[in-house]
Design a protein that fits this description.
Number of domains: 1
Shape: elongated
Strand content: 25-35%
Largest sheet: 4 strands, antiparallel
CATH superfamily: Ribosomal protein L16/L10
Order of helices and strands: EEHEEEEHEH
Radius of gyration: 17 Å
Number of strands: 7
Oligomer: single chain
Distance between the termini: 37 Å
Number of helices: 3
Length: 141
């Protein structure tokens, strides 16, 4: 699973107010010919990214090339069950990233569009928000 090798501070604020607005970076295809774009804001965990990656890889039978355009940098903490109030912040449970609408999550290349669309559809079912499949042709219009 994806997680940072080294972070400056072990625990951070979650920045949940940043779900709104549009993504102004990483909003266009850069590597492949077809990609999966987020249409809603939300939080994406390392487990969800890995589940989507596995679904795509299994679908294309290890053909073509897959680019993961996102990385979960933010640690999310959680306190244990039935712990009284106080006694500090909880321990790190998982890593996540804030996704804004318009962000490209995954890209694919070296495959026919039909196979790539099927793989990206399977990946989108693993994600917690609405997505859209975009191609290089959709930018030319």
């Amino acid at each position: 699973m994806l997680e940072p090798k080294k972070i400056k501070y072990r625990r951070q604020h979650r920045n949940r107010g940043a779900f709104g607005g549009k993504s102004w970076r990483g909003a266009e295809l850069a590597f492949g010919s077809i990609g999966l774009k987020a249409m809603d804001g939300g939080e994406l965990t390392a487990r969800q990214i890995e589940a989507a990656r596995r679904a795509m890889t299994h679908s294309v039978q290890r053909g073509g090339k897959i680019w993961i355009r996102v990385f979960p940098h933010n640690p999310v903490t959680k306190k244990a069950a039935e712990v009284p109030m106080g006694s500090g912040k909880g321990s790190v449970e998982y890593y996540a990233l804030v996704v804004r609408p318009g962000l490209i999550l995954f890209e694919m290349g070296g495959l026919s569009e039909e196979i790539a669309r099927k793989a990206l559809t399977l990946a989108s079912h693993k994600l917690p928000f609405k997505t859209k499949i975009v191609t290089t042709l959709s930018y030319a219009a």
